[in-house]
Write a structure and sequence with these properties.
This protein has 155 residues and is α/β, with parallel strands linked by helices. The protein is built from 5 helices and 5 strands. A 5-stranded mixed beta sheet has the order 1-2-3-4-5, sandwiched between helices. Helix 3 packs parallel to helix 4. The two termini are 20 Å apart.
């Protein structure tokens, strides 16, 4: 999901004037959340990638493109090339997740460029049970990230 940071209640107004927005998605959506956040750092300052399925150039779907088109869609390429340090990232993967090495490579690329990254490896694989089991770990990260950006969440 993508949401404006001021408060979740303001989404329906479509007032995107805040400079602090968040994206949070699972699996290939985790790839997309980070890619979009890196491509639009003035809009998305918080991104979560839960079991992101980061693909190499060789294994990426054709719609990722090749050459420069691939690099504009690949979170690792973007993390290595863009100089944006105000963003906060959460990345996690299961110990048995076949995509864990990509999540670790993404973490390393973000850290090399001085970005704030919270990374976790939990028990589990790449499935709905894993994500459901760890939802309660994700939420405090987002609440803290919002608070660090000066947003008080309703209780």
């Amino acid at each position: 999901f993508f949401f404006k940071q001021k408060t979740a209640y303001e989404i329906s107004t479509r007032d995107w004037s805040s400079d602090v927005c968040s994206s949070d998605l699972l699996s290939m959506g985790g790839h997309g959340a980070v890619q979009i956040a890196l491509n639009f750092p003035d809009v998305f300052t918080i991104a979560g990638a839960h079991s992101p399925s980061i693909r190499s150039r060789e294994s990426a779907p054709a719609f990722f493109g090749s050459g420069g088109a691939f690099e504009r869609r690949d979170p690792i390429s973007l993390a290595k090339s863009l100089d944006v340090t105000k963003q906060q990232f959460w990345i996690d993967a299961g110990q048995d997740d076949p995509w864990r090495s990509g999540a670790e490579a993404l973490r390393d690329a973000l850290l090399e460029r001085g970005r704030s990254v919270e990374f976790h490896t939990f028990d589990g694989g790449h499935d709905g049970w894993y994500w459901g089991d760890h939802l309660w770990e994700y939420l405090p990260f987002y609440a803290g990230a919002f608070a660090r950006n000066g947003v008080t969440l309703p209780r």
